[in-house]
Amino acid sequence: MTIKSILQKIDEIRAKKIALPPSQNAIDFNPTLNADEIALFEKKWKIELPDDLKCFLSEIGNGGFGPGHGLIPLGTESILDPRIPVGDRDTIDTEKDFAYGSAWNYEPLRRAMEEGSADQDQLMEYYFSVDRISGAIRVCDWGGGGLGLLVVKGREHGKVWCDYRGDFGGIFPETTPDEDSSRMSFLQWYEAWLDEIVQEVPMEERRFW
Questions:
Q1: Which of 159, 169, 176, 190 is a good FRET partner for 118, with 20 to 30 A between their CA atoms?
Q2: Residues 6+ apart with CB under 8 A from 181
Q3: How many CB atoms lie within 10 A of CB 179?
Q4: What is the C-alpha separation between 40 and 2, in angstroms, rounded?
Q5: Does 165 have pLDDT greater than 60?
Q6: What's the rounded Cα separation, in Å, for the pair 127 and 61?
């Protein structure tokens, strides 16, 4: 997956006037970032961004046309959980490793909700805590409380994950559609979203929107 192929597909969508997803009004990007601006963000939050994201930021743009409601610009919004804060905390801890290596949900909470358990509130606080997504930054909002995450610390560094705790769907990795089902890097994820637009896949059949 390369910046060149992504730009070619964006040009194709423009040239053919292919219909955009309902959440997208136009193919627009924010201004690019230079190496110093990217390095300043990395230093501030004590992380190292994956190279493919850096290429996107410096060659295409810092947020804009993208999955969900659009790519979130690199900055303060990247490290905030926009949902209702738990314990008045909404800032993602980028100094800790991302905790997961496989899909995660919280069975004790499901059982407590079914049984009307007295400790349901405590379990909810644990489940929805911003601590669950330490080591990641927010790259898009899917709507309905769903977030697109890029891991920036830990063994899943550079991989895209989804946080669908907003509808109790848990946290899980984005994977390629082939038999290997390997984890997606940022550019793989972005290009997979573009491919569905270029191929005019019906909305109800898309993995991404």
A1: 169
A2: 175
A3: 6
A4: 25
A5: yes
A6: 34
